[in-house]
Amino acid sequence: MDKDLIVVFGAGSSLGGPLVQAFSKNIDVCTVSRLAFIGDSLHFRVVDYEESSLEDLFKWIDAKAYHKVTVLFLNGIADSSAFYKIGHQEISDIIDVNLTLPMKVTNSILKRFMRKEISFFYTSSSRALHADKGICVY
């Protein structure tokens, strides 16, 4: 009951991999990703981030085994071009991944781990590779 757990959404991101490798040396880390993940973490692979997949994830984690739970959201996506050039579907996809998913996951985690010490860290997406770091549609 005195163990800590870090749950990382978007563990396959460029930031996620190094963080997971560093944390997993001393703490239990559960990576959640659509991608296969290689490393020293407990890995829960999702086909999609639908409610049924999230329910399976929370059943998979043994809540009684952990005192403190930290959740990192590294799953953001950026718009592919200037806002006025993108379509409605891309806007919906961005909002689903960057805003709706973290809200749903936060809600589910609070319900299941209410009596635990919980921390949430939300990151925004970055288009650093496009030389305009930090912008995204929300």
Throw out a few tags for this protein.
single chain, 138 residues, alpha/beta, five-stranded parallel sheet, 3 helices, 22% strand
Can I get a quick summary?
The chain has 138 residues and is of the alpha/beta class.
Write up what this structure looks like:
The structure is a single chain. With 138 residues, the protein is α/β, with parallel strands linked by helices. The chain has 3 helices and 5 strands; from the N terminus they run βαββαβαβ. The protein has helices at 16-23, 51-60, 88-112, and strands at residues 3-9, 28-33, 42-45, 66-73, 117-122. The chain has a 5-stranded parallel beta sheet, sandwiched between helices. It is globular. The N and C termini lie far apart (38 Å).
Note the topology.
Elements: E1 3-9, H1 16-23, E2 28-33, E3 42-45, H2 51-60, E4 66-73, H3 88-112, E5 117-122
Parallel strand pairs: 1-2, 1-4, 2-3, 4-5
Helix pairs in contact: 2-3
Whole-number mean pLDDT: 77
The main β sheet shows up as: 5 strands, parallel
What level of helicity do the residues show?
25-40%
Report the span from N to C terminus.
38 Å
Radius of gyration over C-alpha positions, nearest whole angstrom: 16 Å
- Helix vs. strand class: alpha/beta
SSE succession: EHEEHEHE
Beta-strand percentage range: 15-25%
State the low-pLDDT regions, or none: none
* Counted beta strands: 5
Record the strand order, biggest sheet: 3-2-1-4-5
Number of helices: 3
